[in-house]
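Milestone M4 deliverable, item 7.
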Amino acid sequence: MTSEGNPRSRHWTQLVDLAASDVPHGHGRKAHLVRSGGTILEVLVVRDAEGWTAIDTLCPHAGGRFEEALVGGQLARCPLHDLRFDPRTGRCVSEACRPANTFAVRAEGDALFIELPFDAAPLDALEP
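Output delivered:
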């Protein structure tokens, strides 16, 4: 899943638990959002030569969680079976498997914004 598709079913929201200055070039850092129903969506926000992107940390192969360190500064890695994913496309580059969900990200100063389906919101939405 990318940010393509029906524009009415997506929106931009600020990541409240991660700032642009927290993500060094060539690295990824985890951020958290809440989906409708209260489940947590964890994404790996990546800053690379092409800019910003995010990938769902849940590996589509066996449900492991991607590590924050990027392999070669560019690939997300699942520690369960050493599978590697392109954080821009979600494509598994180490063997045939379903792609991971990806999300567009943009920076405005130190603030990071992520394009999400309408069923997700910043983590602080859970707080009273």
